[in-house]
């Protein structure tokens, strides 16, 4: 096998799909949260499975015409899964299934790991018209469902969307399924912080000072990051300046 083939070889053959449907994070010292590190290739695999769920939804609704025609990526979390879903869903090979038009909307509900704000806030306006449309709302994780419910009500009442379908790789709570249709891949426990590929550095920068302030040495912080799954190319660059920052 050439070096090119080695470097570009898909890693899907080593993914345990069943594990990632009900993944368990790891506990670390100096923290009450558990952490689940999602590698890039796993995130790509999960989104591909999500795209298949959306496709099946579209097929099941050919006769009803209640198919998703627009998708809103909720920033920041929904951007990465949304962009990857775009690769699958922004065009179609089936004349009975519409290509999906993607847009964005910025909503903030968390200050950091385990720190929800009092209520969601719109920080970037909706970028596309969704009036009278069936809209997929893309998030990376549904925790308490507050952001999803807030966005669904806003799109329906303020922007005239006909119907909302939530699309998210993971749910922490199933309560949101009582108020809207949800397409998802798996569940994670409520005490687990999912570290997606778009927030690896962000989580490190926010959590290392927390461990330090609770008595962890820089060596203990490094051990935590290694246990979580952080690679050296990230810890070698970010750990020390983060730990030493006032």
Highlighted features:
7-stranded mixed beta sheet; 3-stranded mixed beta sheet; Rossmann fold; alpha/beta
Can you lay out the helices and strands and say which pair or pack?
Elements: H1 3-8, H2 17-21, E1 26-27, E2 34-37, H3 40-60, E3 70-75, H4 79-89, E4 101-112, E5 115-124, E6 134-138, E7 141-142, H5 146-158, E8 163-171, E9 181-187, E10 192-195, H6 200-213, H7 218-228, H8 232-244
Helix pairs in contact: 3-4, 6-8, 7-8
Which bin fits the share of residues in helices? 25-40%
Quote the beta fraction.
15-25%
The tally of domains stands at 2
The structure class reads alpha/beta
* CATH third-tier fold name of the largest domain: Rossmann fold
Number of helices: 8
CATH architecture of the largest domain: 3-Layer(aba) Sandwich
In short:
With 246 residues, this protein is an alpha/beta fold.
What does this structure look like?
The protein has helices spanning 3-8, 17-21, 40-60, 79-89, 146-158, 200-213, 218-228, 232-244, and strands at residues 26-27, 34-37, 70-75, 101-112, 115-124, 134-138, 141-142, 163-171, 181-187, 192-195. By secondary structure, it is an alpha/beta fold. It has 2 domains: 40-192, Rossmann fold (3-Layer(aba) Sandwich); 199-246. A hairpin with a 2-residue loop joins strand 4 (101-112) and strand 5 (115-124). The chain is globular, with a radius of gyration of 19 Å. The termini are far apart.
């Amino acid at each position: 096998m050439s070096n090119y083939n080695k470097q570009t070889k898909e890693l899907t053959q080593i993914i345990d799909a069943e594990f990632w449907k009900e993944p368990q994070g790891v506990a670390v010292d100096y923290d009450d949260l558990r952490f689940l590190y999602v590698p890039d290739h796993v995130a790509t695999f999960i989104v591909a499975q999500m795209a298949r769920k959306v496709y099946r939804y579209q097929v099941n609704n050919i006769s009803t015409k209640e198919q998703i025609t627009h998708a809103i990526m909720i920033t920041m979390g929904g951007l990465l899964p949304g962009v990857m879903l775009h690769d699958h869903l922004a065009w179609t090979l089936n004349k009975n299934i519409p290509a999906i038009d993607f847009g964005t909307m910025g909503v903030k509900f968390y200050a950091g790991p385990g720190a929800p704000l009092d209520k969601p806030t719109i920080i970037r306006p909706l970028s596309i018209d969704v009036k009278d449309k069936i809209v997929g709302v893309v998030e990376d994780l549904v925790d308490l469902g507050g952001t999803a419910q807030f966005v669904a009500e806003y799109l329906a009442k303020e922007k005239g969307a006909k119907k909302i379908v939530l699309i998210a790789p993971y749910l922490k709570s199933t309560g949101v399924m009582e108020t809207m249709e949800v397409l998802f891949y798996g569940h994670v426990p409520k005490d687990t912080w999912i570290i997606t590929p778009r927030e690896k550095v962000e989580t490190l920068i926010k959590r290392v000072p927390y461990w330090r302030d609770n008595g962890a040495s820089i060596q203990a912080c490094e051990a935590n990051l290694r246990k979580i799954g952080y690679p050296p190319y990230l810890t070698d660059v970010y750990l020390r300046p983060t730990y030493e920052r006032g």
